[in-house]
Amino acid sequence: GLILLAAALGATAAARCPAPCVCDNLRAYVLCLNGSLTAIPDTIPELTRKLDLRGNSFMVIPAGAFLATPYLTHLDLRHCKVERLEEGAFRGLGRLVYLNLASNGIAFLYQESLDGLFSLQQLILEGNRIEEIQPGAFGHLASLTVLDLRANALVYLPDMIFQGLQVLRWLRLSHNALHVLGADAFAALPALRRLSLDHNELQALPGEALARLDGATRLDLGHNPITYVAEEALAMASLRHLFLDHASLQDVAPDAFARSPQLRVLDLRENQLQGLPPLAGAGGLVRVSLDGNPLLCSCLLRPFHKWLARARVQAEGACAAPPALRGRSLNSLKSPEMRCSHLQPPPSPTAPPEQPSSAGSRQCPRGCVCSPGFHHGSCENRDLREIPRDFPEDTRLLDLRRNRFRTVPPDAFPGLKELVSLHLQRCSIRELQPGALQGLESLVYLYLTDNHLSTLEAAAFEGAPQLAYLDLDHNAFTRVPAGTFWLLPNLISLHLQHNAIGELVEGDLAGARGLRWLYLAGNAIRHIAPAALAPTKMLEKLQLEGNHLSEVPTAALRGLPALSELKLSRNPIKHMGDGVFLPVASSLQHLYLDNMGLEQISPHAFTGLGPKIRSLYLESNKMSNIPDMNNFTGLEILNLQDVPFHCDCQLLPLHRWINKLNLCVGATCGSPAEAQGLKVKLSTTFQTCPGWGQGEAGETNPNKTKAASKSSKKKRLGKSPARGFSKSRA
C-alpha cells in the first residue's frame, strides 16, 4: 500500500518540483544546490526524505519553515548565509535524524530554536559565529549522539548548558575561544564518551567541569595555553586517551592523573616540558608521548626514567640537553648517563589558588524574574527608567533588554562579581558614565545593540577587564570610539555594524591587540587609513559589506597575517587592479565580492590567491570576464550568478575550467545575443573557437592567456577540489 501511495504521490510530485531543484522521487531525494533561493520552497514533494539546500541565501529560517515536508530524515543547509533560526524553525520534523547548518552566520541559539527535533541524531553547527547559547537550547534533543560546535565564537560555557542531551556520545567544541567553563557545564551528559576541546583559550585544566564526565573515554585538550597540570587535576573515572599536545605545559604534578585510573595513552607532544616526575597513581598508563619537548636528560630525569621501566610505560621523546645526549631517545638512555654537574633543580610552580564561590544571599528586584538554578536574572521589557539593583550575587546572565534607562550610571551593577553576560539592547541608552561597569570582573559579553550611543568614554570600561565581546551594532557612532580599547586587553569580537562611521583613521583601534573579529557592515566608510588596522595583528574576520569603499583597501590589509575572511560585498568598487589581495594572500580563505557593480577585474587581481581559498562570492556584478583561476584548487563554493559573461573565445579557458569543477557555479552568458541566458558550462558558442576539442590542455588556443598556459600543469593536478572535510583531529 505504501509503495502505491509513494508512486501516486511521486507522479504528482514530479509536476511540483521547485524550479531550481532536482527531484529524485524514487529515492525521495531533492537537491537545490547553489541556487538563488531566498526562502525555503513550499512546493517540495511532501514525501521527500533527504533535502539538500546547500549554497542558497536564506538569512532567516522562519518558524514552521518545513511543515510541508514532515517525512524528512536528512536536511543540509550548509553555506546558506543563515543568520537566525526563529523559535520553532524546525517544528514538525519529528523524523529528522541529520541536520547540517555548518558555514552559516548564526550568532545565537535561543531556547526554542531547535524545538521538535526529538529524533535528531547528528547536529552540525561548525563554522558559524555562535557567541552564546541560551540554557535550554538543546533541551528537546533527546536522541542526539553527535553535537558539532567547532569553529564558532564561544568564550564561555554556563552551567547545565547541554541539559537534555541524555544520549550524546561526542561533543565537539574545537576551534572556539573558550576560556571560562562553568563547574556544571557538562553536568547533564551521562552518555558522553568523547569531548573535543582542542584549539581554545583554556589557561588551566578545567578539572571541576570535567569531573562530571565519568563515562568519557577520550578527551582532547591540545592547542590550549595550559601551563601546569596540578595535583589530582583530572578526575575522570573512565578516561583512556588524553591529548594535551601543543599546549604550553611547563610542569605536571606527580599525582595529576591519580584520579583517572583507566588512563592508557597520554599525549604531551610539543610542550615546554624539561622533564616529568614519576606519574604516581596513573597505574594503567601504557604510552606517554613527549616528542617536541626540550627534555633535559640530567639526573633530575632519573626518577621518571626509572618509573617508566618499572611501570612498563612506553615513552616517545628525545633529549634536547645536555649537548652530549642531544637527540638520544628516552628508551635508549641508561641511568648512569643522566648526570648532574652544577644544575639547579627548577623551582616547582605553585598551583593557582582556588576561588571560593559564595552563593548570593540577596533576593530578586521587584518586577524581575531570577532563576537561581540557571543563575539568570531578567527584567526584559518592564518600562524601567533606572537599572534595578540587588540581584543575587551569583547571577551570571542579566537580561535588561527593552527598557528606558537613557544612561548607565557609575557602579550600576554592585556586587555582581560573577556576571558573565549583560544584555542592554534597546534601552534608549545615550551614555555609559565613567565606572558604569565597575566591579564586573567576570564580564565576558556586553550587548548594547539598538541604543543611541555616539561616543564612549574609556573610563566606562574600568573594572571589566575580561570583556571579550562588545556589541555596539545599530547605534549613532560617526567614528570608532578610539581610546576605549586600552582597558579591554581580552577583547576578541567588536560589532559596530549599522552605525554612521565615515572612515577608519590611524589610532582608532589602538589597544585592541587581541581582536579577532571586526564587524563594520552597513556604515558609510569611504576610506581606511593604511595604519588603521595595524594594532589588530590577530584579526581573522573583517566584515566591511555595505559601505562606501570605491577600491579594495589593500594598504590597510598589510600586517594582518591571520585574516581568513574578508567581506567587501555591496561596496561601489567598480574596478579591481593587480595584486589587490596580496597582503592577505597567504591566509585568506573566504572572499566576498558580490553585489558591487564590479565592471572590470584586471588579469592579475587575484595574484597570490590560490589553493587556500575555500569560498569566493562574485555574484551580481557587471564584468563580462574574470581572470584565470586555475590555481584555485581548494574551492568548495564559487558563485558566479547574475554576471553578464561575454561568451566568445576569450571565455574558453573559463568554460573549460568550470566544466572540470565539481561545483554548481551558476555562470550564465549575457552576450552575444544568440548565447544570452545559456549556462557558460553548456553553451555551444565555444565549439567554433580555435583549439576547441583539443582536450583539457588546449595549448594551441591563441586566445588563452599566458597566465592560463602557465598554470595548465596545476590545472591537471587540481581536478577535484576538497569538499569541506576538516583535517582537524577533532
UniProtKB/TrEMBL annotation:
Keywords of the record: Disulfide bond, Extracellular matrix, Glycoprotein, Leucine-rich repeat, Repeat, Secreted, Signal
Stretches for region Disordered: 336-362, 691-730
InterPro entries according to UniProt: Cys-rich_flank_reg_C, Leu-rich_rpt, Leu-rich_rpt_typical-subtyp, LRR_dom_sf, LRR_TM_domain-containing, LRRNT
Domain of life: Eukaryota
The protein, known as: Chondroadherin-like protein
Biased composition (Pro residues): 344-355
Annotated signal peptide: none
Organism for this UniProt entry: Quiscalus mexicanus
Subcellular location: Secreted, Extracellular space, Extracellular matrix
Domain annotation LRRNT: ranges: 16-50, 363-397
GO-annotated cellular components: plasma membrane
Family to which this protein belongs: Belongs to the small leucine-rich proteoglycan (SLRP) family. SLRP class IV subfamily.
Record's function text: Potential negative modulator of chondrocyte differentiation. Inhibits collagen fibrillogenesis in vitro. May influence chondrocyte's differentiation by acting on its cellular collagenous microenvironment.
Residue ranges of domain LRRCT in the record: 293-341, 644-690
Assembly with partners or alone: Associates with collagen and binds to collagen fibrils.
